[in-house]
C-alpha cells in the first residue's frame, strides 16, 4: 500500500504524529498543497506542529497554547481538520461504527491502557478492515476489525484506540 504521492511521509520527530496526520489530510484534500508539501514534508510538519500548539490557529483565532513536548491536542486537530474540509470536527470515543460512519477525514488517537500516545489518519474503512496512515512508518497500515475491537491494534507499538476526531453531523 502506498500514498498517492509514492513517497514515504514519516513524521520528522517523535512528537509530530498529529501534525503529520494533519499535513497528509490536507494533502489528500488539496492537490496544489500536496505537490508543495510532498517536497518539504518534514519542514511542513514541524511548522504546523508549532502552529497547532501555539496561541493562534491557522485562521488567526486564539487557542489554548499546548506544550509541544506532549504532542498535538485533539481540539487543535479538530480545528485544523475543519479548516481543511470546511466541516466542523468533534472528539468522539473510538468505536468501529464511529469510524465507519464518518463522512470525511478522521484522526484516531491510539495508545496504551493509561494514555493516548499516537495519532493516525483513517484513510478507508470497510466492514472488516481499517486502512490508516501511520506517521511512524510514513505510509498506510491495515488493522482488522477484530484487532480494533480486541484493543490489539499494533500500530507503532500502541494497541488501544482512545478517541477519534470526526466530522460533526448536522
SSE order: HHHHEHEEEEHE
CA radius of gyration:
15 Å
Question: How do the strands of the widest beta sheet line up side by side?
Answer: 1-6-2-3-4-5
CATH architecture: Alpha-Beta Complex
| Top-tier CATH class | Alpha Beta
**Helical content band:** 25-40%
Largest sheet: 6 strands, antiparallel
Task: Report the portion of residues in β strands.
Answer: 15-25%
The count of β-strands is 6
Terminus-to-terminus distance: 33 Å
Mean pLDDT: 92
Shape: globular
Alpha-beta content class: alpha+beta
SS element count, helices: 6
Number of domains: 1
- CATH homologous superfamily classification: Cysteine proteinases
- What is the CATH topology assignment? Cathepsin B, Chain A
> Low-confidence runs (pLDDT<50, min 5 residues)?
none
Overview of the structural elements:
By secondary structure, the chain is an alpha+beta fold. It has one domain (17-167): Cathepsin B, Chain A. 34% of the residues lie in helices and 24% in strands. It is built from 6 helices and 6 strands, in the order ααααβαββββαβ. It has helices at residues 17-29, 31-39, 41-52, 74-85, 96-101, 145-149, and strands at residues 89-93, 106-111, 116-125, 129-134, 139-144, 160-167. A 6-stranded antiparallel sheet has the order 1-6-2-3-4-5. β3 and β4 (129-134) form a beta hairpin. The N and C termini lie far apart (33 Å).
